[in-house]
């Protein structure tokens, strides 16, 4: 059961919103959306990892077999190994959904312009030649 004030958005509602915002028919949008979802399922069934930048990553993980305990009866139960789909939240979704503040830039001290490139120093002048004052 959903918490009070929480709305469940259905695929039909998403189709309606996308159709309204793009101008495409609901039939076309529903077909594209369903194809997208079917392809995600297909890729995961092959064991592939799907990465959507800023959104998140879907991947299949193997859970090993284990021995668990029923909390009501305290009876020991064998749980077989299985494959599960994991989702790791992307950066943009984490910032918007999890109420994380955006990363703060490092504090800038006083804004000073970067130093002007230094001109290469001219080579040192050679020492003056001795003057020959001899009469010969």
Quick rundown:
This protein has 3 helices and 5 strands. The chain has 136 residues and is of the alpha+beta class. Among the domains are: 8-48, no CATH class; 49-102, HU Protein, Chain A.
Tell me the distance between the termini. 117 Å
Give the strand tally: 5
CATH architecture of the domain at 49-102: Irregular
Q: What's the CATH class of the domain at 49-102, please? A: Few Secondary Structures
Q: What do the pLDDT scores average to?
A: 85
Work out the strand percent.
Answer: 15-25%
User: What helical percentage do the residues reach?
Assistant: 25-40%
Which stretches of 5+ consecutive residues score pLDDT under 50?
A: none
Q: Which key phrases capture this entry?
A:
136 residues; alpha+beta; 3-stranded antiparallel beta sheet; two-stranded antiparallel sheet
């Amino acid at each position: 059961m959903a918490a009070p004030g929480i709305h469940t958005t259905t695929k039909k509602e998403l189709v309606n919103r996308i159709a309204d915002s793009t101008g495409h028919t609901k039939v076309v949008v529903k077909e594209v959306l369903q194809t997208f979802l079917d392809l995600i399922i297909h890729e995961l069934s092959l064991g592939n990892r799907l990465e959507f930048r800023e959104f998140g990553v879907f991947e299949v993980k193997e859970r090993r077999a284990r021995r668990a305990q029923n909390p009501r009866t305290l009876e020991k139960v064998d749980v077989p190994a299985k494959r599960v789909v994991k989702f790791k939240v992307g950066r943009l979704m984490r910032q918007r959904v999890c109420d994380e503040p955006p990363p703060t830039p490092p504090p800038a001290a006083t804004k000073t312009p970067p130093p002007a490139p230094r001109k290469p120093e001219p080579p040192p002048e050679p020492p003056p030649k001795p003057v020959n004052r001899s009469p010969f």
